[in-house]
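Quarterly update from the structural biology core.
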Amino acid sequence: MTNAEATEAPARALPEGDPSLIGVPTFIVGATALGLVLTGYVPAGAVGASIAIILPATGLGQLVAAVWAAALGQSAVASVFGIFAGFWISYAVLVLGLTHNWFGIAPDAAVSTQGLFLTAWLIMIVLLTLASLRLPAAFTLLFGLIDLALALVLVGTLNGSTGLTTLGGYVVFAFTAVGVYLFAGALSAATGGSPLPLGRPVLT
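Predicted structure, tokenized:
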């Protein structure tokens, strides 16, 4: 191929698609399972009941969405899904590790271990919330509710308060509802309809 032909060759088109059509519904199903655990749908000793959904569906789904978004050049979207892939997969590993003693953690250190996990992720999601202030308000609302749920479960876990943990579970259902709204809008747009309004950004 001559230099002229190379210059005139059309640029390679980027693939198209919307990673949220995988990332958001897999987030919804995992959050629903987690909310049911936190609100006492299953006995306290069956905390691992949600892992069959969270690890293979939600964790993997977030990872697939992150890779897809990165392939499209959507760095911010890839970051969000990558962060939540880390959260859900690490949550599954935490629960499995504590219940099967993978990490050699003494029983009397289990609560502080959970506190470490929740504190680290609360800090990360708060940072994500602050970074989302230039996004449509629905995303900031979603992340803010996740912050609140993590904070309630953290305080409830450290203080042995089932009431706070249960309240955190209901906040999980609240941010799940926001996720349902986001998914409905994305699916509507993908099937030829109009997207749902997402609100004005907090910062412009």
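The longest helix spans residues 162-190.
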